[in-house]
Amino acid sequence: MIIPEDERSGEPIKGERVLSHPDMIKASEWILSEKYEPPVRDFCIFVPCAKHKPYHLSPSHKIYDRIIFGILEPKEAHIVVFGTCGVTPRELDEEYPFMNYEFMLGRCDVVSVKDEFVRNESKKLARYLEKTRHNYRHRIAYCMGDFRKAMEKALTMTDIPVTIVPKWETMEACIQPDKPFKYGSLSRRPYLQDFSDALTSIKGVSKRTVGVTEESLNDTDWYLI
């Protein structure tokens, strides 16, 4: 248990306040401190958090897992979720407060809130990368939007390399300027193909062709943080 029940704040974990809620900060610090011991794996895969909780049962994460574990063995990969939740190893996704907060960053259009998120999340990511410098051989981040901005900013704070996908050229080829989310969902086939290609390239195995399912075509979970 990260935060014992008698030590939890009585304040609801909802809305923009999630980003500075005392229990979210406390849980994040627990992970980034010496209290959490990350596993040693060949790959660390960073993926966005999701509205549906626990994350590993969300539609988007099930799609990511089909890509990841179609190429890697479970013992090779450590899945780390990032976003509104901070930096959360996915094996902790059923813990409080990660099961309990409610905030949709993808629907937030307040510039100051988004800027605060990128600024704070990038620092957390950089700390996690430094903390796990010797735990992983390879690191891949699958992300867009403010999550991608946070990861890119984190990489300016450390010399630890992270492969970020989808590729910019793929995103530009898929752009739909008239849509609220012009780059669409991370569950789109071209993006998933980039994800798959990054994994197979680093692992040194043949490329796989990513298929499209009814679930991925109708996925709306990706931006509901």
UniProtKB/TrEMBL annotation:
InterPro entries recorded: DUF5591, Uracil-DNA_glycosylase-like_sf
Q: Source organism's superkingdom?
A: Archaea
| Pfam families, alphabetized | DUF5591 (PF17884)
Which residues are in the DUF5591 domain? 32-164
Query: What's an example GO BP annotation here?
Result: tRNA processing
Q: Which UniProt keywords apply?
A: tRNA processing
Q: What is this protein called?
A: Queuine tRNA-ribosyltransferase containing PUA domain protein
**Species of provenance:** Methanooceanicella nereidis
Q: Top-down, what is the taxonomic lineage of the species of origin? A: Archaea, Methanobacteriati, Methanobacteriota, Stenosarchaea group, Methanomicrobia
